[in-house]
Each structure stands twice: as C-alpha cells, then as structure tokens.
Amino acid sequence: MAGDFNLHHPLWDSHVPANHIRGNTKHLADWFLNNIHIDNDPDTPTRRGQPGQRDTIIDLIGFSGIYNGTFDPIAVRPDLNTGSDHYPITTTIHLLQNDADSALPDPPNLGHTLKPNKKEDWITAFQTVWEGLTITGNPIPSIHNPLQP
C-alpha cells in the first residue's frame, strides 16, 4: 500500500507531538498498527515544506505481514526530485526465485499473478505499455535516461 495520506502522526513522523493528532488520523494509525507495517523511517521527510513550514512525512509505504521480506526497505530519494514538493520513494520487490521460496504463504488473489517462469513476458508487456504512454511535464529521470542539467 502506498499513498499521499496528507496526515500527521508520531507513528510515521517522529516530529509530530502526540497532542497534535487531528481528525481521523488516530483511526488510520490504529488500523495500520493492526494490519499494515509502515516502512517509512519516522525521521526521513517525504515532503519538502514551503517557507515557514517544516518538512513532513505524509507519503506512506506499507505492507501486510505476508509480504515481510519481499520488499527492500524504502528509500526517500530527494536526488530524483523533478520539482515536486514530494520526494520520490523507491524500493525493490523480490519475486520468488526457486521452489524453496514456495513455502511462503500464497498472496491474496488480486486478479493477476507474476509467475517467475513468465518474467520475460511481463517485462515485454510492461515495456510495451510504458513505451505507449505520453508523459507531459517534467520527464521522469532513470538510470537509462537521466535528466541533463
């Protein structure tokens, strides 16, 4: 699960005092505590504050227990910023590599399955979709096509 929740809570932002929790933030934090592991570092901002504002952590990345170990820790990447006040966040997803890994619990049925033996088919499918996209605004930097200063 990932998103810009635009909510402030000490569970994911160590600079938020407990007495500054507003609205439904407590309900969401309680749900996270019971269902989702938040992977954010509570001391690493995901949004750059405007003048007079502090930097905050409002873009959250989390996963349920069955995916523990499937993702590398997230990395907030100000170095990849293209002008937004929100920093890019990266991670790596590890797909099953061999039969020994099949002891992991089955993930929930989301209507799609990434099968290791179909890796090339998925890469081709994603590349086809990506190449067909029309992106407006600032281009997204990558290791294959970095932005030039």
From TrEMBL:
InterPro entries: Endo/exonu/phosph_ase_sf, Endo/exonuclease/phosphatase
GO molecular function, one term: catalytic activity
Domain Endonuclease/exonuclease/phosphatase: 2-89
SUPFAM superfamilies tied to this protein: DNase I-like (SSF56219)
Protein name: Endonuclease/exonuclease/phosphatase domain-containing protein
Organism: Sphagnurus paluster
